[in-house]
Amino acid sequence: MMVQGYHSEIMKIYEATRENERRALEARKNEIEKNHPEIMNLDRQIAKLSIEISLCFIKNKDTVEESVKSLKSKIKDLRARKYELLVANGYDTEYLNLHYKCAKCQDTGYIGIEKCRCYKQKQISLYYRNSDLSESVKENNFSTFKLDYYESHRIGDERYSPRKNMENILEKIQGDYLPNFKTQGDNLLFYGNSGTGKTFLSHCIAKELLDSGNLVVYRTSEDLMKNLKDIRFNNNHALEELLINCDLLIIDDLGAELTSDYYVTELFNFLNLKLLKRNKMIISTNLTLEQLTKCYTERLSSRLFGNFILFKLYSNDIRVKKNLSKISR
Ligand SMILES: [Zn+2]
């Protein structure tokens, strides 16, 4: 996806990175020049021979192959001596080379005409600069997820104990949803009482996907409502593009916003467009399925029930609520 404005901002970051690298290399060269001039001498000889190679192609066309071969072998020897000297003096062999943050694209953001993966990650951090998700995923992730907070005995008429239920959900998410994220189009709906870990779980998923270079956008339902208004009334195309085209949109706490007929219609159209484009979503809600139908009309809830994999989260244990809310906000 391409979002106007962000692109030039990202290219500026790459430029600055390359400039920093050039300066850092300059400083390293000055340091070596001062302390080990013999190494810099080798470096200069290598550079000179490299220029001679390119001159070969212009000058003696008959003997070009022979000359290039001999020059290359000289360079190889000099380079080996340079590396030896560097290492002997306690330096890394790469000390006098440019150090790239991303070797794949050499900090240009592109490999050929394809965007590098690091470009996408830069895009994500730009999107999240002013959002609370980058902070919350530091604490809310699978490594801090504690199954012990869920009771191991059955409650109510649920088929599984809360812990077994959560184990099943984690298995589906970690064993299937996340590894196959790129290739399959599953949408997830987490429903259940507040404090059962829905937001926490969606943050865990967000982090995994962000870390693997996916563009994840997190919105509470209330934020989404404001965003959809902004798109409609202020023609905020960049925002629309972001919400529609991101790899995963998480809509948290559906039902907590002040629902209006207007929003229900907008939301319905929005979900339809997302489903049509097969762009993935995770929705979480404290509402029961019956309440969802009541609040959001039959046609909207049938979109949810028909196109999302439903996961019910439950627990009576106050510890879940207490501990999860402690770390989630
Ligand atoms: Zn890169």
TrEMBL record:
NCBIfam families assigned to the protein according to its UniProt record, in alphabetical order: PRK06835.1 (NF005304)
Pfam families hit by this protein: IstB_IS21
SUPFAM superfamilies for the chain: P-loop containing nucleoside triphosphate hydrolases
Classification via InterPro entries: AAA+_ATPase, IstB_ATP-bd, P-loop_NTPase
Molecular function terms from GO: ATP binding
GO biological process, alphabetically ordered: DNA replication
Protein name (record): DNA replication protein DnaC
Occurrences of domain AAA+ ATPase (ranges): 184-310
Signal sequence segment: none
